[in-house]
Amino acid sequence: MMTCHYFRTNLQPGNADAAMLEHLRHCDACLDFAMSVDPDLFFRSLGGEELIPPGGVDAFVGDVMSQVRVHDAEASLAPRRAASAWQRWAIAATVAAGFTGATIAYRYEHPVQAPAPAHVMAAAKPRPAATATKSFVETYSSHDATIVEMPNDGSDTKVVMIFDDKLPADL
Prior knowledge:
- It contains seven helices and two strands, in the order αααααααββ.
- It is mainly alpha-helical.
- It has a two-stranded antiparallel ribbon.
- The protein has helices at residues 4-10, 18-26, 28-37, 40-44, 56-77, 85-109, 118-123; strands spanning 146-149, 160-163.
- Helix content is 49%, strand content 5%.
- It has a domain at 4-47.
C-alpha cells in the first residue's frame, strides 16, 4: 500500500497510475490535495467495479428499454397540433375558394353600374324627394290658434307653424 507522503511527492497532473488512483479512492486527505493539483483526478479516482447496477447489466438494459417503450407510447398518444403540408395546402385552397365564391356572389347581387355619359347626366334633372309622411294642411281657420309663417329662402317650400290646443298631436 502507498503512503500519503509518497503519493504527494510523486503526484503529477494527468497521472493515471493504477496504484495512485487506488490510494485516492481510500484517502480523503490525499484526494483534497490531488484536487488542487489536477481536478480531473477526482473523476479518474471514482473507479468502476462498484458501478455495476443491481441485478446485472442485462437487468439494467431491460429497464432502460422498457422506459424507451413507455416514452414512445406517450409520444404516439400525444395530440398532434401541427398540420401537415397537405393539410395546410387544403386549408388554403378552401379559404381561397370561399373568398372567390363570396366575391362572385356579391358582384352578382350588386352589379356595378357604368357611369353615364356626361351629356346624359347634364340632361337629367333631379326630382324633389318627398320630405313629409303626414298630410299637408292646405287651409286652417281658428280664433284660438296662433299661426306663424317662416321667412322664405327663395325656394317653393313654405313653412307654416300652427299652435292650437284643439289640433291632434300627430298632425
